[in-house]
Amino acid sequence: MNALDFYNRFFGTWAGYVIQLSFVISAFIIVYISLIIYRYRKRRKPYWNVELSVIPFTIMIVLITLIGIQIERRYEQQLVLPQQKESVHKGDTRAAEYPELMAAARKMGELAGFEEILSESIPETVSLAADSVRNNRPDLKEQDYQHYKEILREQMQKGIPGILQKIASLYAEHYTLAEFRELNGFYDSAVGKKSKLVEANLSPRILQITPKWSQEATKAARVYIEKFTPLITRKKNVFSGNHSTAETSSNNAGVPQKTIGNPEYLMAAQKHLKVIGFDEVLTVTIDATVKLGTDNARKTHPNLKEEVYQHYGDILRKEMQKGIPGIMQKVALLYAGQYTLAEFQEISRFSMSPIGKKSKQVDNDLSPVFIKIIQSWPLKAAQTAAESIN
User: Fold this and answer.
1) What pTM was estimated for this model as a whole?
2) How confident is the model at residue 82 (pLDDT cuts 50, 70, 90)?
């Protein structure tokens, strides 16, 4: 044991600091009294004066200050350093566990059917993009048009592994291995596996509902902003193609007749959407759409006052918010035909459990990132496809 270790062990404690303070004060008193006795024996009067006190008093103040600094550092160590050490320890632990966390995150994505959901969305996305190209490029030959669709479909399919990797890395930052085991346990259960199939089956139909929602809201907002640009040659809106989407009657297609008009199933489906946070996903979608729409308005209608763009965004947000109840009703009708009441209850129990609530919170927090990733996916593919026909 060296001198520093000895000091830290015996004096770097609260009791050690008290001993040090006592020693300094005692030393001051002893030195001071010794000086008075010395002067008394030498008959040096006065035996006490202010100058006589300066040196020992200064030394005592310096020593007490040094001890005070030690005490302050010790206090900071007790309040802050344990948290920092725990954080560093957790960081080291997560770094060591990262391969396992990524494997568990990819497993969760597999069990939850992320790849199937993305794959199922490709045909609808290709159809919308291709119709937009046909509207904006009426001179395009049918051969080139079909080639565009093939390249777009191929590029989107190639992009899926990258998206799954990004999603897995995001989830790996938010869950522990124990939490992944809980989540994967649910997704690997009977109702969890069924929910995977349900989400894969319903995603294309939900994607038929939600674009019309944003299209109608965008159309209402564009009526406002185009008042300020009457002389601008207006390009066709990429959202305003002749994309017929299913209304309520067509939404009922494929829904078991026992659930149509059955309030019990519909109420269970509406509760299910609330529990899984579908309404919150719509709210996040609104935020992303408003930002995208406002940015596009700045490009297509430049040189307007900032307040015009802000008001355009406000109108777009208001119109989309007005459409949420209708979207919820249509989607609830789709879900009502997919689960039994017992299955709705089982999913609800999981969603209301601690890990279920955390899962919902994590998904809400990551939704803007997911939306950005998902939106860039077809855009990059469409750019490659467009280059192939130019």
Assistant:
1) 0.52
2) very low
